[in-house]
Design goal:
The protein is α+β, with helices and mostly antiparallel strands. Helices cover 32% and strands 26% of the residues. Helix 1 packs across helix 3.
């Protein structure tokens, strides 16, 4: 098992700020990297696959959003497991506002309805 320290600190700080602000979400070490969960469901998982690789994160997304994300560019790809799992590679020009939206959406997919209802979402344009 790797440690949360395997994920760059600047990435951990930003992911923690979003994930731990969600109702009852918690952080724990995973078999590799670190993950954020609601109850026993994973909202996001950040890790480095092999030494020297870039840091990646998996999260949940609705089907139509998966298609849009994957078609948007190289930082997003479908994970090789799960119907609604997307993998994102962290690059130097990561859009942290977008990451926050993606994490919130992943939480809403995984959380019980009662907890999801507590999350403030920005109004749709």
């Amino acid at each position: 098992m790797s440690a949360p320290g395997d994920v760059p600190e600047e990435i951990l700080v930003r992911l923690r700020a979003v994930c731990l602000a969600l109702p009852e979400a918690y952080e724990e070490p995973a078999w590799i990297g670190v993950r954020w969960r609601i109850r026993q469901r994973t909202v996001a998982h950040a890790y480095i696959r092999d030494p020297g690789d870039e840091c990646v994160m998996t999260f949940r997304a609705p089907g139509e959003e998966i298609i849009a994300l994957v078609q948007s560019g190289h930082v997003f790809e479908r994970a090789d497991w799960g119907d609604n799992v997307v993998r994102m590679t962290f690059t130097d020009d990561v859009d942290w506002a977008e990451v926050a939206e993606l994490l919130t959406e992943s939480y809403l997919i995984q959380a019980p309805k009662r907890l999801a209802a507590l999350v403030d979402r920005p109004p749709l344009p």
